[in-house]
Amino acid sequence: MKYRKNNQNRKNVQQSSLKQNKRQTKIAGGDYFDKFKAYRDLHAHALFSSLGRMVAAPFNSIMTISVLAIAISFVSGFYILTINIQQLSGQLEASNQMSLFLRDDVSEVHANKLAESIKQNSNVENVKVITKEEAAAEFQKYSGFGAAINELEKNPLPIVLQVLPKKSLEDKQGLENLQKEFQQVPEVDVAQMDLQWIERLQSIISMVKLFASILNILLGVAVLLIIGNTVRIELHNRRDEIVIEKLVGATNSFIRRPFLYAGFWIGFISGISAWFIVTVLMLILRNAVEKLSSFYGGSFHLLFMSATDTLALIAISSLLGVISSWAVLSYYMHTTKLKRRNLLHF
Amino acid sequence: MINFDAVTMRYPETGDVLRNVSFHLRKGEIAFLTGHSGAGKSTLLRLITLMERSSRGRIILDEQDIELAKEHHLPFIRRKMGVIYQDYKLLYDRTVFDNIALPLVIAGYGHHEVARRVRAALDKVNLTGKEKKYPLALSGGEQQRVGIARAVVNKPPIIIADEPTGNLDPELSAEIMILFEQFQQVGVTVLIASHDISLITQLNHRVLKLDHGQLVTS
Questions:
Q1: Which residue of B45, B63, B86 is the best one to mutate when testing the A interface, meaning the one whose CB has the most A CBs within 10 A?
Q2: Beta strands in chain B, from DSSP E residues, in sequence order
Q3: Using CA atoms, how far apart are residues A219 and A84, in angstroms rounded to an integer?
Q4: For strand A98-102 and strand A160-165, is the pairing parallel, antiparallel, or unpaired?
Q5: How far apart are CA B50 and CA A53, in angstroms?
Q6: In terms of domains, do B71 and B171 share one?
Q7: What is the pLDDT of residues B8-41, one digit of tens each?
Q8: How far is B201 from chain A (nearest CA, A)?
Q9: Taking the domains of chain A in order of start, what are their residue ranges?
Q10: So what's the pLDDT on residue A56?
Q11: Measured distance CA(A92)–CA(A89) in Å, rounded
């Protein structure tokens, strides 16, 4: 009983003296504005000294940052690739139309009548007749076989009815039923849904996307590990310095701060370098893509990274830098703590 | 100021290094800590400087029980002590000024206050004009004095010195001892670990003698 009371007293004395302690350090540092300025100076110092350390060892820094920049540029390259493919499929998605290829013996007049009757269908928004001549002209224009078609005695192209279903008919089942219905019409040779090949394309795109996201995760992990390892080496090299700082009263956050900033810098500079790499590659690719696109009506333009994308790229890589150095610091703190009753861990 | 109450330190590999050590150093007291090598001097200093925790017993520094202190309190307790190491423990990639300023920067002092206090500390140890030099450009005695300046720059109530005169000639040793006595006179508690018998007998201060982990004179 007596012991417990004593213990209680000890705790009370302890607490009051700690409070006093805090007050003393506050007073010692001057007023709050001075304190704030000193705190800001600490951060500024950690920010620039960590950058200064990287500049002081340029070979190591350049090696690390190059590896990271390449890894990050892969990630952003895949991202921009999927964005561009999406753009491509987005344009196609708008057309859920069907093409009804009519039998060769159907006349133009009959085709127009058929178009009118199809228009009455409650599921159909519009029908457009493409005559043999129009089809031939279009074929000449885009296929590059213009001369060949002139050689033929008879125009081999069928009359096509382009059917645009109502927007309400969005589900696949409804469209398929409509297609079957048209296939029953005697004048129709083939009823083709444009959607089918769009679906195929989209499944390819989603596969590419899945592949890209798996690769991105792997590369993200690689980035974390590379930055973490760099910080670990730095931590190891500055072991003595950390011990001395701890011995003269540095708090854990004081010790951590420069390493967190170092992680930030590595991520930040790598992010900018990755952006640079991707942009240069895209500029090289642009001409080729535009040329290719011109063959297909020129509706496709290479999308570059937007300002938001670029900011996100740099922010994410900086954040990865901070996170991985935080993880390494926590790990080392934990392992030094385990060593006997060592009080110098941070 | 420094209060040891039945402190025992046991390492699993070597057994008891300190056994039942009790002593009390009052505010403004100066004392030598001595003993043959392996007697437990370094261990005792490691306990005071919060590098390790004792296995048993109670250590009270400036009214604070170390055993009850939470981990995040430790840095603030360390700031109450100026510690002078045998191997100086200076940062060799920083100037003399930055080395001495370190405790102040860590404690969050403003720019001007840091500069003012560092200059005062440099003056105290007779190193004025060397603040822009790097430690390796200085002699051993000068490096030791940089270490002393760093220990006192924060005006701590406790000064701990581990063999502060180990690498110095007798004349410099005497100078440094005078410096410690000056600090003592303004109310600082000073504990000096040393096996320099001539120095200890020459100065008539309290002596804590360790023998195989036990305190034999206090």
A1: B63
A2: 2-11, 15-25, 30-35, 56-61, 64-65, 81-84, 158-162, 189-193, 206-211, 214-217
A3: 21
A4: antiparallel
A5: 30
A6: yes
A7: 999 888 888 999 999 999 999 999 999 888 888 9
A8: 31
A9: 30-91+201-338, 97-169
A10: 86
A11: 5
In this prediction the ipTM stands at 0.90
pLDDT value at residue A29? 46
Same domain, B150 and B193: no
How far is Cα B34 from Cα A25, in angstroms, rounded to an integer?
A: 33
CA distance A150 to A154: 9
Instruction: Based on the fold, state whether residues B147 and B98 are members of the same structural domain.
Output: yes
Name the CATH architecture for the domain at A97-169: 2-Layer Sandwich (3.30)
Helix then strand then coil, % of chain B, to nearest 5: 40, 30, 35
Q: In this structure, are residues A254 and A42 in contact, taking their beta carbons and an 8 Å threshold?
A: yes
When CB atoms are compared, the residue of A45, A249, A341 closest to B75 is A249
> Could you tell me the residue range of the domain that residue B188 belongs to?
1-80+156-218
pLDDT of residue A261: 94
- A264-276 residue pLDDT tens: 999 999 999 999 9
Determine whether the interchain pair B79/A14 forms a contact, defined as Cβ–Cβ distance below 8 Å. Answer: no
In a mutational test of the B interface, the residue from A245, A248, A345 whose CB has the highest number of chain B CBs within 10 Å is A248
Q: For residue A49, what is the nearest residue in chain B, using CA coordinates?
A: B94
User: Residue type for B186, please?
Assistant: V
Interface of B with A (CB under 8 A): 11, 49-53, 55, 62-65, 68-69, 71-76, 78-79, 83, 89-91, 102-103, 105-111, 113, 150, 154
Cβ neighbourhood burial of B203 (10 Å; 0-12, 13-18, 19+): middle
CA distance B202 to chain A (A): 31
In angstroms, the separation between the Cα of residue A286 and the nearest Cα of chain B is 50
pLDDT in tens, A43-62: 888 888 888 888 888 898 99
B75 and B2 belong to one structural domain: yes
Number of domains chain B is built from: 2
Cα B17 to Cα A112, A265, B46, B162, distances in angstroms? 107, 46, 12, 18
- Name every chain A residue with its beta carbon within 8 A of the beta carbon of B109: 28-30, 38
Q: Is the Cα torsion angle A207, A211, A212, A214 positive or negative in sign?
A: positive
Last residue of a domain, one of B104, B123, B155: B155
The pTM assigned to this predicted structure is 0.73
Same domain, B128 and B180: no
Contact B73 A248 (CB under 8 A): no
